[in-house]
TrEMBL record:
It comes from Streptomyces zaomyceticus. This is FG-GAP-like repeat-containing protein. SUPFAM superfamilies: Integrin alpha N-terminal domain. The keyword rRNA-binding does not apply. The lineage of its organism: Bacteria, Bacillati, Actinomycetota, Actinomycetes, Kitasatosporales. Pfam families: FG-GAP_3, Inhibitor_I36. Residues 1-33 form the signal peptide. Keywords: Signal.
Length: 407
């Protein structure tokens, strides 16, 4: 968010005990009162630095500004959308677009950043001022179906991202995206997918509803879209952390779920059943799992045909592989000696490299420094070796920042 220069000046003046009379001159109308003329639900602009004189207002996208072209000196965005300002008409010059957050309460008005604003539009997420709501994802066709990470079963790994407006986007792996959830997904505080739970052969999504602690199954339709949800956990799931659709751990061929109990640090297996529900849980880790701040379900990574578990240790930034056994995980093996805490999230969507071995990808935090990409929002690809370890990461320049999760 750009700092509002004028407001900051007034704030400093107030802090120094000057008051508006001292700063603005005796008899000056306090600027705040004029800015308040901007009605809620509108974007407003003025030709002066203190929001006096004629006010421009609109609540619709405006490709040309006529008499107001290059004239904005003070702006306020009292809509519930992000406002993008462009130096070119018709939303041209998107790379340099100005962005103002939704501000219905009028907390942050001020200079427009550029004095040559020639068009403006309103968008649900800041990303959309200079590009699509979703990031670029590319995957290669795998030689065999992974059974997970592939909602449309074309053997190309796909990803679902949630944007900050609570919409879901399906990324099929050809750099494009398609909206599969029109809103409301920010009500969920856990999202996971790994294979088929509903027993129709199509991959599904599982989500936890924050306000109720309920667990919902959103059945995949086989095209990347999701069908009508079904309750598979009637409550209590807020006591669990790291809810992770896993693949088959119990050994019956059906996809299972694992989760860590917050209060005890125990790791539990929730077996998938023949009816698409979850069966009675089974303890698979007696404690200590709160030390792990990420669980990743990459499928089989060491070539024994059983799905494995990767966990990140919070205190050390180490990455551990727990090889899958029947109904249990085996002794862990160190596969990442440190530094993994600079990753914001992990994506386990099968063999996106197309060499027959399952891979993982990460999205970085501000602490990441890689060759070709640094800071928040780099996508880093880690090819699997087939023996449970990972090849060195390949940073991609794709813009994966400004989202609210990917899975
Ligand atoms: Ca696919
Ligand atoms: Ca299914
Ligand atoms: Ca199972
Ligand atoms: Ca394995």
């Amino acid at each position: 968010m750009r700092t509002s220069m004028l407001r900051r000046l007034v704030t400093v003046a107030t802090a120094l005990g000057l008051g508006s009379a001292g700063l603005l001159g005796v008899g000056a109308v306090p600027a705040q009162a004029v800015v308040q003329d901007c009605p809620r639900g509108y974007f407003c602009a003025w030709k002066t630095d203190n929001a006096t004189g004629t006010m421009f207002k609109t609540k619709v996208n405006t490709p040309t500004l006529g008499a107001w072209d290059n004239a904005f000196r003070t702006v306020a965005n009292r809509t519930d959308k992000f406002l993008c300002t462009y130096d070119g008409a018709n939303y041209a010059d998107p790379v340099g677009a100005g962005v103002r957050d939704p501000d219905p309460e009028l907390r942050d008005w001020g200079g427009p950043g550029s004095y040559s604003v020639s068009s403006l539009k309103f968008v649900p997420t800041a990303r959309e001022c200079d590009g699509p709501a979703y990031p670029e994802w590319h995957s290669y066709t795998a030689p065999k179906a992974a059974g997970f990470g592939d909602l449309n079963a074309d053997r190309k790994s796909d990803i679902v991202v949630r944007d900050t407006a609570g919409r879901l986007w399906y990324l099929p792996g050809d750099l494009t995206g398609r909206m599969i959830g029109t809103g409301g997904w920010n009500a969920m505080n856990a999202l996971t997918r790994h294979g088929d739970f509903s027993r129709d052969g199509r991959e599904d999504v599982i989500a936890r509803e924050a306000s109720t602690g309920k667990l919902w199954l959103y059945p995949g339709t086989g095209t990347g879209s999701l069908g009508a949800r079904k309750l598979i956990g009637s409550g209590g799931w807020n006591s669990m952390d790291r809810i992770t659709a896993f693949g088959d751990l119990s050994g019956d061929g059906r996809a299972d779920l694992i989760a860590v109990e917050k209060a005890t640090g125990k790791l539990w297996l929730y077996p998938g059943t023949s009816t698409g529900t979850l069966g009675a849980r089974k303890l698979i880790g007696s404690g200590g799992w709160n030390a792990m701040n990420t669980l990743v379900a990459p499928g089989d990574t060491n070539g024994d045909g059983r799905a494995d578990l990767i966990a990140r240790e919070a205190s050390t930034g180490k990455l551990w592989l727990y090889p899958g056994r029947t109904g249990a995980v085996g002794s862990r093996v160190l596969i990442g000696s440190g530094g993994w805490n600079v990753m914001a999230s992990f994506l386990a969507v099968g063999d996106f490299g197309g060499d027959g071995v399952n891979d993982i990808a990460t999205v970085t935090t501000s602490g990441y420094v890689g060759e070709g990409c640094r800071g928040v929002g780099c996508l880093v690809l880690y090819g699997g070796t087939g023996t449970g370890t990972l090849k060195p990461g390949t940073p991609e320049m794709h813009n994966w920042s400004g989202l609210n999760g990917a899975f």
